[in-house]
Predict the 3D structure of the following.
Amino acid sequence: MKVQQIKFNNKTHNYSILIGKNILGVLSKKIKLLCPKARKIALVIDKKVPSKFKNRIKNQLKNFEIVHLSFEANEKNKSIVSVNKYLNILLSKNFNRSDLVIGIGGGITGDVVGFTASLFKRGINFFNIPTTLLAQVDSAVGGKTGVNTMHGKNLIGSFYQPKLVISDTSFLSSLPKKQMICGYAEILKHSIIKDLNFFNWLKKNTKEILNKNSDKLIFAIKKSCSIKMYFVDKDVNEKGLRMKLNFGHTFAHAIEAKSRYSKNLTHGEAVLSGMILATKLSCIKKVCKRKTLREIMDIYERNNFTYTFKKYSNPKLIENLIPFIKNDKKNNDEKINFILLNKIGKTTNPYSSKISVNNLRRYSKIISQY
Ligand SMILES: NC(=O)c1ccc[n+]([C@@H]2O[C@H](COP(=O)([O-])OP(=O)(O)OC[C@H]3O[C@@H](n4cnc5c(N)ncnc54)[C@H](O)[C@@H]3O)[C@@H](O)[C@H]2O)c1
């Protein structure tokens, strides 16, 4: 059992991400170390996580009073209703702040359980055990928690860091291909915005990642978490630099909203479309060379991801995204904030590329010609 570790250390927070295959055995030792006063543990587990993992976790926690809660992870249940339900259960079982809440599941579970933990008596110990690739490379890193509302996705939430993240790649064995592609999209994004060498490595290793080769996965998860951490560490509350992580996401959020968050479209697939549209926009704005766009497209072609953006060779369909882009919560005036690409490994700075709706309408006709 080889465990890789990334430490997150700044003025206010200090926690680690552990990455490896079959590493859940570290859990009880870590609880003793990080939450020495914990007597009760609430385990909130995504229903689709195979039961062998639940048993493996429960077997280690025999000395604690365990409350087991299973969660049906979908965007509808990512709600204040679920949070309220869990808060009431914790209250009725007399949990206190030195006890522990563990979320075991994908990004939805992590966001809901993390938000619950941040609210309970103003913050109870929280461990995150991500079980999807997206959660392991993205959502479990950085401390954003939250729920959806009828007004939009992720509009209520908090910044709350876990005491520990355990990313065990053995969870991924049951994950469908579509969900692997979803997580891969964020891995690719991390390479594009920050690390040319990692991008070149991905050119050679994408197929093996999607085929769940454990060593390649561990390398990609570690690299991805380090890149996300780099931005989070410099800007925990997302006032500036961290926004670079939104590369491709302005289009992606609009694509998801336009599809009414259809189950047939994962967030990662929308990000794959969004990154191509954002790179094309970067070429139109002449901050990026076409050669860079070709390089990115090449990865898409080799791995059959082109289906994610084919539809957007139709200018009308790009234009139809504009009302949804305008609604995105990250836009604070009439102009739309984009993170554009200069070259692989370098984006423009937040707030430096604002585009008016009229210009965006003009560009949507040209984007489709690229
Ligand atoms: N907090 C953040 O910084 C952040 C960042 C990115 C995304 N997110 C959020 O994360 C969510 C998306 O996360 P996700 O893609 O992990 O979605 P998810 O949690 O819905 O998981 C995807 C699907 O996989 C299932 N699943 C989970 N683990 C499994 C396993 N081991 N085997 C088989 N099936 C499994 C789930 O039940 C679900 O059906 C969105 O709500 C998004 O807003 C948050």
